[in-house]
Structure formats: C-alpha cells, structure tokens
Amino acid sequence: MDSLNNQSETSNTTWIKIVSKYNSPNAVKSWWQLTGNLLLYSFAWFLMFESLTVSWWVTLGLSFPAAGMLVRLFIIYHDCGHGSFFRSEKLNNAVGLFIGVLTFTPYFSWSHEHYIHHETAGNLDKRDIGDVWTLTVDEYRESSKWKKIMYRFYRHPITMFGIGAFLVFVIVNRFSRKTMDRRAKLGVYATNTGLLMFAAGMSLLIGVKAFLLIQLPIITVAGIIGFWLFYVQHQFNPIYWARTETWDYKRMALEGSSYYKLPRILQYFSGNIGFHHIHHLSPMIPNYNLSQCHRENAMFNEIRPLTFWKSLKTLTFRLWDEKGQEMVSFRKMSRVGVMTRDK
Fold first, then answer.
1. Span 71-82, pLDDT tens digits
2. Which domain covers residue 47, as residue numbers?
3. Is 141 part of any domain?
4. 52, 76, 165, 287: least buried by Cβ within 10 Å?
5. What are the Cα distances from residue 98, in Å, to 80, 104, 187?
6. pTM score > 0.70 for this model?
7. What is the tally of structural domains in the chain?
8. Which strand (E) or helix (H) includes residue 321?
C-alpha cells in the first residue's frame, strides 16, 4: 500500500477539488436513467407475467434480470438519499419515497442510517449502524458462548445473503423503531401503505398467486444481490480499519472501500456502485459520473481492483485481526491464537 500512502500526502484541497468536478447531477441524465430503468423493470415484470402460462421455471429465470433492474433502481434511490441524483431536495425525496415502495425499503430511515455509515465506516469505535456486524478477534474471544453462537449464525453466508436478505426487505423494513424520529416513522408507514396499494392493485389485476410468483422471486434475488454488494464493499483484504484517534476519512474511502471491478453487464445492473472508493470519497457524485471520475484522474490509478472471482474469497472472512491488520476466517483466527500462545 506504499503508493496509497504516498497518495495520502495529497492535500485535502487537491482531492476535494478533483472530486467536486463530478458532484453536480445532470438533469437530462438523471431523468433518462430513472425513466429508462422504470420502463425496463416494468417490461421485465410483464415478461414474467406472460411466462407464467409457459412454465414457472421460465418465470424464475426472468426474475434475475428483473432483480438486476430493481438493484439499479435501488442505486438511484441511494443517490436520492445522498441528495446527489437531482438538485432539488424535494424531488430527491419524492423519487426516493417512490422507489422505496418498489424496493420494499423505507426511504428516510434507511437514508439516515446510511449517512451514519458514511461518517463511521472503517472506524472500529463506531460500528454497528448501517454496517455488517464485524467483531475483532479479541472481541470474539472475550464474548459469551451465546454471543459467539449468534455471531457465527449471523456471519454465515446462508444467513446473510439468504435468510437475512429476505427477512430485512420483506419483514424487518415493515416496522418502525423507537429510535426513529417522526419523519422516519412516517416514512415507514408511507412505504407500507404504498406497498399495500401496489400489492392489492396488482392482485386484483392479475391475481394474488400470480403476483406472489412474480414479486417474491424478484425481491428475494434483488435482496441477495444487494446484500452481497454491500458486504463486499467493506469486507475484503487488504482493507483499512482504525480507531478514532487515527481514523482518516480519505484513507477510509480509498483503502477501506472496495473498487469492485465487475464485467460490463454486472456494472450496469449494479449502477456503478463498484466504484465504491470514489463514492465514499464523495457521496455527492451521481452514480453515472463515478466511472468517469475514476478513469480521468491519476490519483485512482494505484487503487487495487477487487475482481468478481477474487471477491468470492471474502465469504470466508469473519473477524478483523487488529494485530495482523486483516480480515480473517474463524480457522485462521484459531491458528493465530495457537501461534500467539507458542510465543
């Protein structure tokens, strides 16, 4: 990481000046992306409905591109939450609330937690809000037996990307919490009302069974993809984590957020969110400007990309080893413990 350490010497004024050129949304691009995505998602929904007369397996197969379009809509929703998709705050909120119904995700509560995530990502002293639950090796060893069981269950891929994704989008997001402010709670109720109207309207139009056979596979696949993207953005090696006294915003963005280099078609469906290092450097950059920002500026040339095949190894990562400064598996944690005792 010597090259990145050299980059860290670049003054704040310099990198802020670089990324600020890409911060402004383009109304034509934003409206084109939004309307195009909505039309393609609606078309995918229509094809799935028509395929029910052929075979549900065909319907299930079509749920993958449909889910891809829903993930892409979620990226627009995400940009609205940052205030980066339109210049108007009211327009961002209106579009965010609308897409929140399609993605089963309350807009204001999610955006608030995501804001906290941006302010605390990579900070070992400020974890657990808007993050993947991550313990250090020492914290895990000092945990109770019950906490260790719960942590292992949570970090298992089937839990995170299967059970967890479905539960969060379909069930957990339906409830408000005491910690939410009034606007966030109203956002939950508005999203639930919109979902109820959507489900009731489509059920009257095509039938309850058809609606469920189409919508549930879409939201399940989209949830799995969404959870995977969020997971791999901050769970890889080498990565940057630090305590508050040494935590640095720029290092967190460039070293603690992945440059997930995906094939072109997957980059399209994921709305360029693979350029996550740049997104964390400047959340005000609309998704359609991220690749351009990366391509046009030499300061990003030394960022090590995480490819799809290499990213699969992150499925074994469970804990942060503060001494070794890396993510480790439970098995490697055990080996580290043996070596430490031998010394």
1. 999 999 999 999
2. 2-134+156-306
3. no
4. 52
5. 11, 10, 11
6. yes
7. 1
8. strand 319-321
